Amino acid sequence: xxxxxxxxxxKIDEREMGAHxxxxxxxxxxxxxxxxxxxCHLEGLSEVGACRLCxxxxxxxxxxxxxxxxxxxxxxxxxxxxxxxxxxxxxILELFFSERNHICSVCVVNGNCELQTLATTLGMDHVHFSxxxxxxxxxxxxxxxxxxxxxxxLCTRCVRVCAEIEGAHTWDIRGHGIESRAFTDxxxxxxxxxxxxxxxxxxxxCPTGALFRKGKAVGEMAKQIGFLPYLRTMRExxx
Length: 239
Ligand code: FES
Description:
By secondary structure, the protein is of the alpha+beta class. It has 2 domains: about 5-80, Ubiquitin-like (UB roll) (Roll); about 100-239, Alpha-Beta Plaits, CATH 3.30.70. The protein is built from 6 helices and 10 strands, in the order E-E-H-E-E-E-H-H-E-E-H-E-E-H-E-H. The strands form 3 sheets. The chain has a 5-stranded mixed beta sheet with strand order 2-1-5-3-4, with helices on both faces. It has a 3-stranded antiparallel beta sheet with strand order 6-7-10. The chain has a two-stranded antiparallel sheet with strand order 8-9. The longest helix is centred in the middle third of the chain and has 17 residues, at about 85-100. Bound molecules: FE2/S2 (inorganic) cluster (FES). FE2/S2 (inorganic) cluster binds next to loops.
């Protein structure tokens, strides 16, 4: 594929638009002011297609496709808003809420949480699935930061920012399915990690209260994520 090749017969939500062949549906939609909900996607990090919030319909296919990892192509007709998509997106959010213990009223990022904001904007008024109430720990061993597994949605933003931007690769995910857990190094306590540089990037990119700063009030927990595309560009120019 020539990444600079032009795609000229693309339609998103009935609007004709041009794109490059290496762009994803999400890239092109956002460039043209079309909002698609996302959680694992973050500008400046690689794409993993983990959360499925960005599912869209593609005419001619019964399968919904994640917009963040699906490249545009000639003749593609994409639908980003429909009753079916809204229903699936709400169900995906409900599954996140039922899998761990997301109690917004006592969460340190209440009001600054991407999961909470999406639940509100997509009209999720309650959870139709049984809550699992897992008994998961909080790792408060780091001097400045904490990891609360109750609020982790396994988006892997922390893993990717640590490996791709900081270059430390302190974080990873172990286990399968509902037993999956974020962990540092060889699964020791975060405060005992030998690779963590304490840069705080993982905390800043976390979309929920899973990674948090100690000693901060709710109103001080707004995450800073705008630095990533800049850092990525700088690293690539230095190669
Ligand atoms: S944003 Fe596309 S799968 Fe998560």
